[in-house]
Structure prediction request, 725 residues.
Amino acid sequence: MTNSKFIGAMLATTLLAGAAAAEDVTLTIESWRNDDLAIWQDEIIPAFEAANPGIKLKFTPSAPAEYNAVLNSKLDAGSAGDIITCRPFDASLALFEAGHLADISGIEGMANFSAVAKSGWSTDDASTQFCVPMASVIHGFIYNKDAFVEVGVEVPKTEAEFFAALDKIKEDGNYTPMAMGTNDQWEAATMGYNNIGPNYWKGEEGRLALLSGDQKLTDEAWVSPYRQLAKWGAYLGDGYEAQTYPDSQNIFTLGRAAVYPAGSWEISGFNALVDFEMGAFYPPVQNAGDTCYISDHTDIGIGMNAATPNKEAAETFLNWVGSSEFATIFANSLPGFFPLSSAEVTLEDPLAQEIISWRGECESTIRSTYQVLSRGTPNLENDTWNASVAVIKGEESPEDAGKRLQDGLASWYKPQM
Amino acid sequence: MSNPENKPKFRWHIVVFLAPAVLVYTAVMIYPLFNTLRLSLFTEVDQERMFVGLQNFRTLFGQSVWSDQFWNALGNNLWFFVVHMLVQNPIGIALAAILSHPKLRFASFYRSAIFIPTILSFVIVGFAWKLILSPIWGIAPDMLDAIGLKSLYAPWLGKEAYALTALSLVSVWQFVGIPMMLIYAALLSIPDEILEAAEVEGITGLAAFWKIKLPLILPSIGIISILTFVANFNAFDLIYAAQGALAGPDYSTDILGTFMYRTFFGFQLQLGDPHMGSTIASAMFAIILVGVCIYLFGIQSRMRRYQF
Prediction:
């Protein structure tokens, strides 16, 4: 009898505990940022849970390379989390079209974002929004301040000054002028073409004109960046043809190179490795006084599983992601991933501060090939990698590269036909 | 006289013993193979899978966007194979001939040392050689410098003209142990009586190799050639580990395997297309099938065999 009483008591406590837990809603977050697990657990989740009692968060990331495949199969099986971290552009758009991501155009937090920030996660006509923009990465050049002082060059503002500085560093001979290789190809396009290009095609203006078919890749604005890239080859180190991305990172952080064409995501990694002072400058403009344009590329968003049973809680969370509180926590734990919200954010890392300050001076745009234009075959992004490398190596003329890309794009993209 | 005991019984044990292998093989090889062939006849329109017959093959061979890449990959693959046939197999045979020499000391040490790269992962081999050949940290430039040949050094893996040959040679380095082992075994199985008889006739040394041993190991060389062919046309890992899925520079190291991978699983902004990917996989299957058939019916059936 004592035994059965005991079991009864145990059963009762289980029921009670179950009932207590049921009052809290737990939201599961799918993500590929397993690097950020500690930041979510130590900073973001406690901050949110303190502000919103009754909602618990569970961050369950998977490996970046497997994320898309894992997420797709979970969504199809109906076992995916309530909150879904969104890759920019077509990968997420495909999920929205398949009915997996909910339409969240209506939530309040969305008002804190500019049209460019939202473009990564809206339908092609920008009418429907399916993810809250979370972070972007900014392109520019990181440089070795000590090397600049030693050689005696100033931070370049114009293209002429840029090449004069590189010439001087090359003449000095102590430093490789610029650390970039062409072996992995993407740096040439991402840190090369799409880094310096917005100054020529005037950021969003040119990008949207390309989307609408008013401009072509053979236009001067789109060929000129290749003309500049063609000059880069001479300033990259010996054997840059076989230099990989980690090679370039190492060359720069070991203090062997003066300039590093960069994305802001390098900041936290570089901070831990360098023993010299780093600075950053935005892509030099053609003539002194020109408006500068920077690639401020939307990289991470966050949305809601359309099949979630906890719709309200999920919306509360997404709203909070759009707030300045989240933006501040996120930006300071991950310097180099900048919040996209227009809300006021204070950054502590000096290099990150310098880079984000460009938003005030320059016009922001995103990488030209990401929205819509890389949807067909041949893939414009892949072709841009290839063309940028070929131009740097001098194997293809800038004009031929422009023509090849235009022909490829025109073969499937209606507005360009 | 019809005795029921004389009637052969159905031998169930054969079925029972074959079943596990047949089931496993069907599940992991035969079913995926036929499913891939089937998938190449479909395409996806608006989230729906649609049967399109041979349309995908028409796209692959008819549209220059696809066919240029396909022929480029096939051409590179052929060169990859040619390098293996001209370098790997002759070296393998030569090594086996040397190793089987009765007076060679430390033969088993050399045998293991040469065979070890074969069991290494492609990723290790790819990264190790990338480092060795690296213009920045690599030992290749320094070694050439030490013997005064620095001018011969080039960042081979980054140059279109050399990258594929360089990677083929890396693959040769990795796999030269396989032909060596197979030929070594074949050489050991040649009876001493034959060699002694030849010696009595005055055929020794190199002449004995060319006139006696080589004809006797020809069937093994045939097997090695066909194994090399199949392995090379299915190759993917080394190129992927060393050059990535875009098989740079400028697709000069793109082989059928990397082309298929890029198409099937997608790459960067390019979304995966399982149907076109399967089409390429089917084309690879056809190429290998034709190659193997030519060997089986054209060469192997005419080859003379010697029974000892």
Notes: The mean pLDDT of chain B is 90.
